[in-house]
Amino acid sequence: MPNDTKTANAPLGNLEEWEDFLKERYPENGSGDHAFQAIDPNKKKEEFRNYETTARPSVREFYRLNHLHQTFDFVQAKRREFLSLKRREMSIWEALEFLNTLVDDSDPDTDLSQLDHLLQTAEQIRQDGHPRWFILTGLIHDLGKILCLFGEPQWAVVGDTFPVGCVYSDRIVFHDYFSENPDSREPRYQTKLGIYREQCGLDNVFLSWGHDEYLYQVTKDYLPSEALYMIRYHSFYPAHRDGEYDYLMNDQDRAMFKWVQSFNPYDLYTKSHERPNMKELRPFYDDLIKEFFPPVLKW
Ligand SMILES: [Fe+2]
Could you tell me if 30 and 68 are in contact, meaning their C-beta atoms sit under 8 angstroms apart? Predict the structure, then answer.
């Protein structure tokens, strides 16, 4: 791939650079195991700006491309392209192994694989005594990142998600980059409600396209609502960490976002350098997968 194309599609050395940035922006609150303040109303826009100025150039470029390209029409096109789920048929474990073939610029000697990270997340949830569906959600929540292996650019797989078709909250990181997005010149998309109705429910709202929505669509027939909310909205930081877009939510969304918030610390803060013992853990996870999923799913 010519270098300019590579940079345009993959400014990040690896996807973890985005997650590392999230950890800087939303640091873990010291009190308690994985305690954090879900929404801090006192955090000023200026404080977030600091994270922007100290962000690595690769992260900044990643967000620039994300905010530039994620238009309402782009989201619709990606939904048409991927949500017929006609690419592959795979079991959950096959999808985990497929995701594990995602090799990026990280050092293979020191860095853990995608599957190692997912097992760490699931194991932490298990150690904290949460229900089986919660553990399973930890294991699979990032499986949608296989979009990268279908050739999708990083900015169309990961990144904090945000609604398209209505105004961009000024709490969205790198908000200034939205000025390059063609939708910012569409008046019908730039009012508070845009194309939506007050409290229409998030199921009726289109978020920027990425691994969350894709995996939600793959798994939506098999998991409890709480798990599906965690999968579908775990990157919707403007809502679950900054409290934005409440006016698009209905009562069910508000109730379910407590689960999204309880999942977030496991997503962000459980990564360690200790490699999980795959051989020992495999039987437990095989049983867990079998409890909820059919042998093969459409991807
Ligand atoms: Fe994720």
Answer: no
